[in-house]
Design a protein that fits this description.
CATH superfamily: Hypothetical Protein Pfu-838710-001
Strand content: over 45%
Number of helices: 4
Mean pLDDT: 93
Radius of gyration: 16 Å
Strand order of the largest sheet: 1-5-4-3-2-6-7-8
CATH class: Mainly Beta
Number of domains: 1
Order of helices and strands: EHEEEEHEEEHH
Helix content: 25-40%
Shape: globular
Largest sheet: 8 strands, antiparallel, barrel
Number of strands: 8
Distance between the termini: 25 Å
Low-confidence stretches: none
């Protein structure tokens, strides 16, 4: 899938939660734990293993980011909950090493094709993440429409341009680009 997304710092998460809950209904809780792996000596992640609501997900992606607006090609498959240790051993046997861990807790809503998450991430603070998934073969126009939808939702939440976070969580957590 192609993932168009943006994230911003959320200084007052309660206000943002109220805005989306009043229009989109009660939020659903989010609890995600991501374990990232990389090839030795590389500064970027290669694989992500995520536990998410009783599911085990494996993902890799290619990211293009311009001014905090991401357009990603994402490849994902699912495993069985409880297989995290075996999966990590498998990745280690393939030569990958542990990189970092990210934990997200908060709430989520859906607005049409947009997925909205308001999350506390590690000790970094609160963030508003909004993404739209598109098929790999979607058009430039589809990507622009997704971007406009995301920007409108950010504006609705009271997010200004100065709140947009252009760094990846990896950069913020590890301190490395």
């Amino acid at each position: 899938m192609r993932e168009v997304e943006m994230k911003a710092r959320a200084a007052v998460p309660e206000r943002i939660s109220g805005i989306f809950s009043s229009r989109l209904g009660k939020a659903h809780p989010v609890h995600k734990a991501d374990h990232y792996f990389r090839r030795p000596g590389e500064s970027i992640q290669a694989l992500r293993m995520r536990t998410n609501g009783g599911r085990l997900e494996f993902t890799t992606k290619r990211t293009v980011s311009v001014n905090g607006r991401e357009d990603n090609a994402e490849y994902e498959f699912h495993g069985l909950p409880g297989d995290e240790e075996a999966a990590a051993a498998f990745f280690h046997a393939l030569g990958y090493e542990d990189f970092f861990v990210k934990k997200k807790d908060g709430w989520e809503w859906n607005d049409g094709d947009a997925h909205i998450e308001l999350l506390s991430v590690n000790d970094l603070g609160w963030f508003l993440e909004i993404e739209v998934l598109l098929p790999f073969d979607s058009s430039v126009e589809d990507g622009e429409a997704a971007r406009r939808h995301i920007e409108a939702l950010m504006k609705e939440a009271g997010i200004g341009e100065s709140d947009i976070e252009t760094r990846s969580y990896r950069e913020m957590i590890t301190g490395r680009k």
